[in-house]
Amino acid sequence: MIRAVIAEDEPLARQTVRDFVSETDWVVIEGEAHDGREAVRLVNKLEPDLLFLDVQMPELTGLQVLERITHCPTIVFTTAYDRYAVAAFEVEAIDYLVKPFGRKRFHATLDRVRQRIEESNEGSAVVRAQDALREGPLRRLFARKGQTIVPIAVDQIVRIEAGESHVAVYADAKRFHLNVTLNDLEDRLDPARFRRVHRSHIVNLDFIKSMEPYDDRRLVLTMRDESNVVASRSGSQALRGLVC
């Protein structure tokens, strides 16, 4: 049996989790918390295998809960906002569920939980949270690829391009989609390495192969993966300022 705790301030969301869990015969809910402080107390007291953790709660946020717990459960984030995906993957949560989530999506998450717990019970949520939340630039991202979650080393990212509802990250000759905004990533990337050269483009300066005039005011960048990015006028001006 997998022992679980629900940390969620919305009664309807707690009920949904309880109802879906009741459809399994290998997960049991051992406690529920309606705010962050109660979540810390329950997790440290009950030491569950699994924690369904709301990102936004009274008293303490989900990430603040992870800073304070001393036990190390597998984490599944629940949130009403897809933009918290980066935070969830930074602390290596097994998954994140965007409310309102359905039965099929929930049970797919439980399958991943069972596989993760069967493979290994090692690793510290506290250590992961402290590492992810410390000041400084991101070192890795986590992206969904099919049914798996894969890490992306930030220093291998060539460029990042904004789409309508996601960003495309190009790294290691692959393209990954993240359900976040370009602003979310820009705030956590190393400004000495990454530059926003256009409202829709961030590039890794280490992967610029060449820069050439595109017109009188703009530059076109050729990246090492042979992709091209046209910098805006202000972005081009900033890049020219880097030339000795």
Describe the protein in words.
By secondary structure, this protein is α/β, with parallel strands linked by helices. It is built from eight helices and 15 strands. It has helices at 11-21, 36-46, 62-68, 85-90, 103-119, 125-133, 182-186, 233-240, and strands spanning 2-7, 27-33, 50-54, 74-79, 95-98, 140-145, 148-153, 157-162, 167-171, 174-178, 194-198, 201-204, 208-213, 219-223, 228-230. Strands 2-1-3-4-5 form a five-stranded parallel beta sheet. A five-stranded antiparallel beta sheet has the order 10-9-8-12-11. α2 (36-46) packs parallel to α3 and α3 crosses α6 (125-133). The protein is elongated.
Low-confidence stretches: 121-127
Principal-axes geometry comes out as elongated
Report the strand count.
Answer: 15
Radius of gyration: 21 Å
How many helices does DSSP assign? 8
Helix percent reads: 25-40%
Order of helices and strands: EHEHEHEHEHHEEEEEHEEEEEH
Structural class: alpha/beta
Give a short account of the largest sheet: 5 strands, parallel
Beta-strand residue percentage: 25-35%
Give the termini separation.
63 Å
What is the spatial order of strands in the main beta sheet? Answer: 2-1-3-4-5
Describe the structure in brief.
With 244 residues, the chain is of the alpha/beta class.
Protein traits:
32% strand; 5-stranded antiparallel sheet; 15 strands
Task: Chart the SSEs and their pairings.
Blueprint: E1 2-7, H1 11-21, E2 27-33, H2 36-46, E3 50-54, H3 62-68, E4 74-79, H4 85-90, E5 95-98, H5 103-119, H6 125-133, E6 140-145, E7 148-153, E8 157-162, E9 167-171, E10 174-178, H7 182-186, E11 194-198, E12 201-204, E13 208-213, E14 219-223, E15 228-230, H8 233-240
Parallel strand pairs: 1-2, 1-3, 3-4, 4-5
Antiparallel strand pairs: 6-7, 8-9, 8-12, 9-10, 11-12, 13-14, 14-15
